[in-house]
Fold this protein.
Amino acid sequence: MKECEIFSQLKVPCGSKILLRLDGRGFYKLSQQIGLKKPYDSGFVQAMVNTGIELFQEFSPSFIYTFSDEFNILLSDIPFSGRIEKLNSVFASFTANSFFSNILKSTIMEKKSYNNKGQVKNILQFLKTISFDCRVIPLSVKMVPDYFKGRQDEAWRNCLNGYAYWTLRKKMDKKKAINVLSGLKSNQIHDLLFEEDIIMGEIPAWQRRGIGIYKIDEKVNVYNPVMQKTVKSSRKRIFSDCNLSRFEVDFFQKIIND
Ligand SMILES: Nc1nc2c(ncn2[C@@H]2O[C@H](COP(=O)(O)OP(=O)(O)OP(=O)(O)O)[C@@H](O)[C@H]2O)c(=O)[nH]1
Ligand SMILES: [Mg+2]
């Protein structure tokens, strides 16, 4: 029967950079069920960042970029000999498990507002359905910056539309809000928000540009027993960057070469 496992030897192409994109399944419904703040819920975002850090600790990629309910993972060494079934299934299940425990911490365990046992049971029941899809995207080295620029543009569109939609929803129903927004150009959305005292340039960078997780050099003092004194050294540490600039080619040259 082994011959029926026709996809098991399907591998990523040799010589390519490999990108994995994971996306939460049905997270709109999840956001409603667990009562996330709109358009951004800091507990949810913290759970995404913590999950990104756990992915980094487990698989040592070059870079992870997250916004909304997605993770973009630029692999360094390609695990499982590049077998696509393994990459998709292991990354998706690892991410779902990690996100489940992180969102549990930032909702039920930290929010004092769920004091009713029935409500907690319902939320727990819903959190058990958490799953992520995963796709494998082979890219040439040259395409890596463009890929991330594309995702960052998507984060920005999400941010602008999210603020506009939820600002309008304070005054009108869903249908009307969608109607008002349809066909508006981005400068018109800016004006609409400006009238409500929301200046998009002042929104936190992590909402406008997403969050990057990567390794940085850190200076540390270590005791050298041979010299019998404390000396300066440097070591790498995982860093979650909530203050990203707009992605440029240079940023990825450093990430890929490190
Ligand atoms: N309220 C709130 N919702 C969020 C936040 N981050 C992500 N979301 C929700 O996550 C959704 C992500 O978009 P999609 O991936 O297109 O929607 P989905 O429901 O997950 O659909 P599928 O991915 O196709 O299964 C958004 O539409 C939001 O509803 C947040 O900080 N606050
Ligand atoms: Mg989704």
About this structure: The chain has a mean pLDDT of 94. Strands lie at 17-24, 63-67, 70-74, 132-139, 211-224, 229-241. Residues 23-24, 27, 69 surround magnesium ion (ligand 2) (CB under 6 Å). Residues 143-169 form the longest helix (27 residues).
